[in-house]
């Protein structure tokens, strides 16, 4: 790790023998560490582009609200991809496909495995699988609703969320970093819907407040 090594070692010292699901904490810290690097690169490129544009167009001003949302979306995507598809490998460009894997190995039958988890030995696995998949995609629905604001964007955002979720599941399947499962796509899509409705509610509330 480049940035969060000391934090990880502290957490490992305090929690490794006490928390059953410590590998999830390790994955989160490792993914955050990689995300910080890519965010710094993104900001550096953004500053360079803004500097060059300002030189050519002295009247140009940065739209900080838009840039903040773009930066947030970038952070979200990078972190999500490292948590799900890329996992622990820094050199993601060297990842290779698992031989013999095809879409036939995708778990297409919905909710069967989720029901098994619900009645399994570990309730944590069930709740993490359900709520984790929903919660991780709420920002997707919220942020894309912002980018497409003023348009009839619900179905467009939902399809984009489903497509991105399916891409993640296929990435996990073909790279051997996880399983491809239709349940995850369903729960991710629920998160997209919640995020979009939450943004619409916030926007409606603000518009109503401003009209008074």
TrEMBL record:
UniProt entry tagged with the keyword Transmembrane = yes
Membrane-crossing ranges are: 35-52, 64-85, 126-147, 154-174, 186-206
Q: What is the protein named?
A: VanZ family protein
Task: Please list the residue ranges annotated as the VanZ-like domain.
Answer: 73-200
The highest taxon in the source lineage is Bacteria
**UniProt-listed Pfam families:** VanZ
Entry keywords, A to Z:
Membrane, Transmembrane, Transmembrane helix
PANTHER family from the xrefs? INTEGRAL MEMBRANE PROTEIN, MEMBRANE PROTEIN-RELATED
Entries under InterPro entries matching the protein: Teicoplanin_resist-assoc, VanZ-like
Q: Does the keyword Membrane apply?
A: yes
């Amino acid at each position: 790790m480049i940035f969060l090594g000391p934090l990880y070692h502290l957490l490992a010292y305090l929690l490794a023998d006490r928390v059953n699901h410590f590998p999830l904490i390790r994955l989160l810290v490792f993914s955050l560490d990689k995300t910080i690097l890519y965010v710094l690169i993104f900001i550096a490129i953004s500053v360079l582009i803004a500097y060059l544009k300002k030189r050519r167009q002295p009247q140009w001003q940065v739209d900080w609200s838009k840039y903040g949302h773009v930066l947030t979306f970038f952070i979200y995507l990078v972190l999500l991809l490292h948590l799900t598809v890329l996992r622990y490998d820094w050199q993601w460009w060297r990842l290779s496909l698992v031989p013999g894997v095809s879409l036939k190995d995708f778990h297409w039958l919905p909710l069967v495995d989720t029901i098994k988890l619900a009645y399994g030995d570990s309730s944590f696995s069930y709740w993490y699988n359900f709520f984790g998949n929903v919660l991780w995609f709420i920002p997707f629905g919220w942020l894309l609703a912002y980018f497409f604001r003023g348009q009839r964007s619900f179905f467009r955002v939902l399809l984009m969320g489903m497509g991105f979720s399916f891409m993640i599941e296929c990435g996990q399947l073909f790279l051997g970093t996880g399983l491809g499962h239709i349940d995850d796509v369903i729960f991710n899509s629920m998160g997209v819907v919640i995020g979009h409705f939450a943004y619409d509610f916030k926007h409606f509330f603000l518009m109503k407040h401003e009209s008074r």
